[in-house]
Amino acid sequence: MSPTTRVSANILGILMETNGVPNVNSNDAWWHLYKVPALAFPVRTAGGVWGGSQSYGDFNLQAKSQGSGFMKTHQRQIWANMTLEQDLDIITKGLKFYVGASYDNSSNTIETRSKGYQYG
Predict the structure, then answer these.
(1) What's the pLDDT band for 2 if we cut at 50, 70, 90?
(2) Residue 51: how many CB atoms within 10 A of its CB?
(3) Which helix or strand (DSSP H or E) is residue 101 part of?
(4) What order do you get walking across the sheet with 69-87 strand by strand?
(5) How far apart are alpha carbons 19 and 16 in whole angstroms?
(6) N or C: which terminus of the chain has fewer CB atoms within 10 Å of its end residue's CB?
(7) pTM
(8) Is 2 exposed, middle or buried (CB count within 10 Å of its CB: 0-12, 13-18, 19+)?
(9) What secondary structure does DSSP assign to 55-90, as a single string?
């Protein structure tokens, strides 16, 4: 701008997208892996129905991850600021004028497509 005027600008942004399974978080998935025996029921029955049992219900992790739909999270954030510094030595030695502005925005959108499935 000029020898007595300084401008600075900063910008930071995040774009993130994650995929998951509706109604199953990572703790549930680990619980299914450790608590349900591998041979408690077939993953799929001969008739093409997802496996399950009276003892473990619908705790078929593969059925939950492939047969129940999907969940997608979109996260977008932006942080920006700008400052202007003007030396006013012509008025008084060491006098400066500062002005600044900032803009912050955040968006978090969750898209869920779920469906039921039969197990037996």
Answers:
(1) confident
(2) 17
(3) strand 96-114
(4) 5-20, 69-87, 96-114
(5) 10
(6) N
(7) 0.58
(8) exposed
(9) TTBT--HHHHHHHSEEEEEEEEEEEEEEEEEEE-TT
